[in-house]
Write a structure and sequence with these properties.
Blueprint: H1 2-13, H2 26-48, H3 76-80, H4 85-96, H5 102-126
Helix pairs in contact: 1-2, 1-4, 2-5, 4-5
């Protein structure tokens, strides 16, 4: 899920999640790379799906979702795009990721930014 993917990627965002640490085996380092690769795939898949239009905004807030009462005066756009924490995390991942996974991090960020555009476009079409 988005919560687990964000938890795995967050240390990389801040520069503390390198693929190899002193004393760690090559197998451990490869496993860490595989896990992060999978997490970038999860973000891409969710961002390219209709999940990006979900009013709770979990995609944009590292998996944290909010519920709003039906009678709220906020528009769909305002309810969905309350946070940029996922985008901020992915920008950090692109900056700090190892060379081998940098294209995956960039792809996840691209998919997320496209999801923002889908929400804005969908909102303007429904207005």
């Amino acid at each position: 899920s988005m919560v687990q993917a964000s938890a795995v990627l967050a240390p990389m965002s801040s520069g503390h999640g390198g693929s190899s640490t002193m004393g760690s085996s090559a197998k451990t380092a490869n496993t860490q790379l595989d896990i992060r690769d999978h997490c970038y795939g999860v973000v891409c898949t969710l961002a390219r799906s209709t999940f990006c239009l979900d009013e709770r905004g979990a995609l944009y807030d590292c998996g944290n979702s909010r519920s709003f009462p039906e009678n709220t005066n906020q528009t769909h756009f305002n309810r969905t795009l309350k946070s940029i924490s996922t985008a901020s995390m992915l920008f950090g991942c692109v900056a700090n990721e190892v060379e081998m996974l940098r294209p995956r991090a960039t792809s996840a960020l691209d998919a997320l930014l496209s999801a923002y555009v889908r929400v804005v476009t969908s909102t303007s079409e429904n207005a």
